[in-house]
Amino acid sequence: MNVICHNIMVNIERPAQGVRDLKRAGFNSLAPDISVRVPDFYGRYKNKNSKGIDLLSVSERCSPLFDSCRENGVQISFVYGPSYQLIDPLQDRKVKDNFLKEDDLPDIEAIEAAEAKLEAFTRKSADECIEFCGSNGVKYILIPPISGDRTRGREWELNRDFYMSFVRKAKESGVCILLQNMCRDVGGHLVRGVCAEASDAADWVDRLNEEAGAEVFGVCVDIGICSLCGNNVHEFITTLGSRVKAVVLRDCDGHNDVALMPFSCARRGVAQTDWMGLIRGLRDIDYDGELIVNCSDTARAFSPLLRPTVFRLAKEAGDYIRWQVQLEQNLKKYKSIVLFGAGNMCRNYMKCYGEQYPPLFTCDNNPKLWNTEFEGLTVKNPEELRNLPEGCGVYICNIYYREIETQLKEMGIKNIEYFNDEYMPTFYFDRLERDNQ
Are 240 and 281 in contact (CB under 8 A)? Predict the structure, then answer.
């Protein structure tokens, strides 16, 4: 599973410093936006001056970034591609504020002409991006569905035609096109949009792949959008199953479309994002795809001098989620295991994984527990760990992980792992109470 950094503060034209900062933070993968800036067709139709149109080709614009990544050993396997929305100028506040006076009537024909130009530009840009990805070893490109109020009732027809136009280029380039769950703005409130229902997203991907005659399409699940749309995250992930190829990890409060550091949006110590549902869902589908950490709003709030520290925390948050998702896979890699600890974490391990992955024994630093039985295991002196068979993993079932890890390393123990019970299939609340121990 690959932990990737969303393109946080890496200047695509002068990328060297940003790429090196991400590398020093521990990131070996970056997820940049490689789409060409979209011309301001709507501004043109209202006879406004065009705003900074950048019509450089994808190769001209992105080659410095890709070259810098190669020089620093940073991989790019996932990119953000172009997207566009169909607007309703009577509803879109930005368009009304910028282009329409209160007594203006929208020129629908002009809007439709602008949208036709925008769609043609987006298709051309997407083709170019897909070809560039293929020549640079990029596996996934995110091209969000066409959305907007004016698509209501014809979402599938518009998007089917849109996506199928890229199939030939994607097959030639060996690139997988990812759809994404979307939200939409209704009167200032964000509600479920295109592919925000897992069953719809699954159906779209299956139908597109069937028409393509190959697995050309998949899904990128944005956990922030799930929060905004009030999805049952576990159900969302498990419904999509193997169609999920990438997951965007970002926190938000469920009301504002922002990208905050995972686990940072909390109220009275309670996370506002359903990380438990996400992790359990990814475990259930044996997920082994891309994890994109997007904390761009958090990073922007910090001084540029402090952002490298933000990157390090972002990497650790991504690694933590990967570790939690791969917990059971990690158990499979050892011929045998033993536990360190004879308390609540040990109990939770035995109730959830003890039958399938039975430990040889457990041990504890409390001498009063030695040679007793706990959850069907003999509790031994930690000195017994010096006699472990080859290929045995030691799982610390105790919150004092770093202290015990140091103890084990001083004993010369290898294959040290940590078992954490936060996201287990079943959590047991009958906590142990021991007096004078």
Answer: no
